[in-house]
């Protein structure tokens, strides 16, 4: 892999601090202004690597690497950097609270449709993107505080940490409730327009519609039955009993209209309780304020489904479990979200690979949604969900390679790995990106003239993440190499899109550097930069794992090792160890390398073979010297 994630993460850290930290204060906002999503993305550009990539840890001051300190030098030294991050995070969590209720509005990310002006009511509506990014940021913050607190002895600082953890926990609970109330199950008859489109998408064998409907319901019968267990939030349905009923599930853009409130069983948070005196009473659990009425269309949106699926996965990650980041209430909410996560992955993976024939529906792009919209962007989004399902089920290399081929085709179609031409439709995938009309955003706003619109422009960064994800799952060395080469080419594209010649240089995104006739920007997009950072984090974690083992290489390594060990034993039998000190030193080094080679032959057969080759050369040298001496006159 040519990406070199460590170096680029350090450069991004340095650029983020240079852009955001001025005159001893953190300045919020980027290209799209300041809102609950953009500001979280800005902060995560620092916290994601710091909490998910071991060498980038900042929560143990005495163990912080010099390279990390140099990249974040404007924030101070190894002790003041984490303190400043704590105070910046505290500022974020207090900034987006209104009357004790966390705010999850899209704000300046909402765009008007057809040039109409959005009202303040529309701009303050909660959106799934904010729920999702808040889950990721809150978990990162709580984990950071948990570890950093072990190095803090001053009671004043410990109170600051306790306050930040409480704020992050409250926002986490509220975000999980929001995700529960945004889940949607869209049911329709096979004869309706959405049903006809879905059947057209999955029926690659040309079977009668009734047969496909029966197969569809049969394959997903457990999923259909599970909807009876979706007890809190939204997503309940009683319309799936009909033999002709089809459905789709996932997340709408916001809280679904008529979604019931989620009952909370307030309990002690179970987190560290501190006081200046012993025996202090338990602190009250977080209150998230009133749950607002939903207005979003009761129908899943692919983009918001992918965003929610990614965030929910963080709730049951190894880090979350090991550090115990969830309190009892959050664990209950997490189980409810995991059920929806499982149902969603099963549904979309089934639809994308339906029939098991020579061509999957996913392999026939562009993907068409049930409302008739087509785009390569939708194909990439469906691919993202299928990858998650394959991770969960440890899919075979054959299935993973087929997904990899789809990603390669998408990279070409989007002109990521191919030169673009004037008027290329693929350029629109990057700028302005996928246009998502938020149906229902007019609700309760009689003066509005249009729905709000959401633009999604993360195509290349999402493509990078999925390439790395599949590469990490493949056990076939050659197939993994193909995906990593594709990831390198996608990174080459992304690296060329960094800002230059401004105080925000080396941040993203400047698509005009690659695609003609696009506007140029002077300020960074934290939306895009955070997603590139997430891709680099994935690459860094992949490179932290042991390399794949090729069975053929293991056999060859042991064959070489057997020969080398036998020749070494022959040298000892000939009394070479009783020869000069120089020969004895060589034999001692040979023995050490043979022991090392045997120890790593199964996990690093290439390195073992290299060691054995050196041993064989040295032994052959001893044999050659002996032969010369025996033939000398």
Radius of gyration: 29 Å
The main β sheet shows up as:
3 strands, antiparallel
Give the terminus-to-terminus CA distance. 56 Å
The CATH architecture of the largest domain can be given as Alpha/alpha barrel
Shape: globular
| Mean pLDDT across residues | 89
Low-confidence stretches: 268-285
Q: Tally the helices: what do you get? A: 21
Number of strands: 11
CATH topology assignment of the largest domain: Glycosyltransferase
CATH top level label of the largest domain: Mainly Alpha
Question: Numbering strands along the chain, what is their spatial order in the largest sheet?
Answer: 5-11-10
Describe this structure in words.
The protein is mainly alpha-helical. It has 3 domains: 5-185 and 291-544, Glycosyltransferase; 186-251, no CATH class; 551-632, no CATH class. The protein is 53% helix and 6% strand. The chain contains 21 helices and 11 strands. Strands 5-11-10 form a 3-stranded antiparallel β-sheet, with no helix packed on it. A two-stranded antiparallel sheet has the order 1-2. Strands 3-4 form a two-stranded antiparallel ribbon. Helix 1 (5-20) runs antiparallel to helix 18, helix 15 (397-413) packs parallel to helix 17 and helix 19 (551-573) runs parallel beside helix 21 (605-631). The protein is globular and about 100 Å long.
């Amino acid at each position: 892999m040519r990406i070199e994630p460590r170096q680029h993460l350090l450069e991004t850290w340095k650029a983020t601090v240079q852009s955001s930290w001025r005159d001893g204060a953190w300045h919020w906002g980027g290209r799209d202004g300041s809102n609950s999503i953009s500001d979280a993305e800005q902060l995560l550009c620092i916290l994601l690597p710091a909490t998910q990539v071991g060498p980038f840890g900042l929560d143990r001051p005495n163990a912080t690497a010099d390279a990390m300190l140099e990249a974040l030098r404007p924030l101070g030294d190894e002790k003041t950097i984490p303190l400043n991050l704590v105070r910046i995070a505290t500022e974020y969590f207090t900034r987006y609270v209104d009357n004790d209720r966390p705010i999850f509005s899209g704000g300046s990310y909402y765009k008007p449709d057809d040039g109409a002006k959005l009202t303040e009511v529309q701009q303050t509506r909660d959106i799934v993107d904010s729920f999702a990014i808040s889950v990721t940021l809150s978990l990162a913050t709580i984990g950071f505080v948990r570890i950093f607190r072990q190095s803090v002895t001053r009671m004043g600082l410990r109170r600051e940490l306790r306050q930040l953890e409480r704020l992050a926990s409250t926002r986490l609970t509220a975000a999980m409730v929001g995700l529960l109330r945004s889940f949607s199950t869209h049911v329709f008859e096979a004869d309706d327009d959405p049903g006809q489109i879905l059947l057209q998408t999955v029926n690659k064998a040309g079977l009668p519609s009734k047969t496909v409907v029966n197969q569809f319901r049969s394959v997903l019968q457990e999923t259909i039955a599970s909807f009876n267990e979706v007890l809190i939030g939204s997503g309940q349905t009683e319309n799936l009993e009909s033999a002709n009923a089809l459905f789709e599930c996932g997340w709408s853009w916001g809280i679904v209209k008529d979604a019931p409130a989620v009952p909370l069983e307030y309990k002690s948070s179970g987190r560290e309780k501190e006081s200046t005196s012993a025996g202090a009473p338990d602190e009250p659990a977080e209150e998230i304020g009133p749950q607002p009425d939903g207005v979003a269309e009761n129908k899943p949106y692919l983009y918001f489904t992918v965003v929610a699926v990614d965030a929910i996965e963080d709730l049951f990650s190894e880090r979350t479990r090991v550090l115990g980041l969830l309190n009892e209430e959050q664990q209950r909410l997490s189980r409810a979200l995991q059920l929806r996560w499982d149902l969603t992955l099963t549904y979309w993976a089934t639809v994308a690979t339906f029939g098991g024939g020579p061509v999957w529906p996913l392999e026939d792009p562009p993907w068409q949604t049930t409302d008739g919209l087509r785009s390569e962007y939708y194909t990439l989004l469906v691919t993202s969900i299928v990858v998650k399902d394959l991770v969960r089920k440890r899919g075979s290399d054959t299935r993973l390679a087929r997904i990899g081929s789809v990603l390669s085709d998408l990279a070409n179609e989007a002109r990521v790995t191919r030169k673009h031409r004037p008027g290329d439709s693929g350029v629109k995938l990057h700028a302005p990106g996928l246009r998502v009309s938020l149906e229902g955003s007019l609700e309760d706003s009689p003066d509005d003239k249009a729905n709000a619109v959401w633009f999604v422009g993360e195509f290349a960064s999402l493509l990078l993440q999925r390439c790395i994800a599949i590469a990490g799952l493949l056990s076939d060395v050659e197939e993994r190499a193909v995906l990593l080469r594709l990831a390198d080419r996608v990174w080459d594209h992304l690296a060329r899109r960094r800002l230059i010649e401004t105080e925000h240089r080396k941040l993203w995104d400047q698509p005009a550097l690659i695609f003609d006739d696009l506007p140029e920007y002077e300020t960074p997009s934290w939306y895009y930069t955070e997603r590139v950072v997430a891709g680099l984090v994935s690459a860094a974690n992949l490179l932290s794992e042991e390399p794949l083992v090729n069975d053929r290489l293991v056999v060859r390594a042991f064959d070489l090792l057997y020969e080398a060990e036998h020749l070494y034993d022959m040298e000892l039998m000939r009394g070479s160890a009783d020869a000069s000190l120089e020969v004895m030193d060589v034999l001692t080094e040979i023995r050490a390398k043979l022991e090392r080679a045997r120890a790593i032959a199964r996990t690093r057969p290439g390195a073992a073979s290299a060691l054995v080759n050196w041993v064989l050369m040295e032994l052959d040298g001893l044999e050659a010297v002996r032969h010369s001496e025996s033939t000398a006159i």
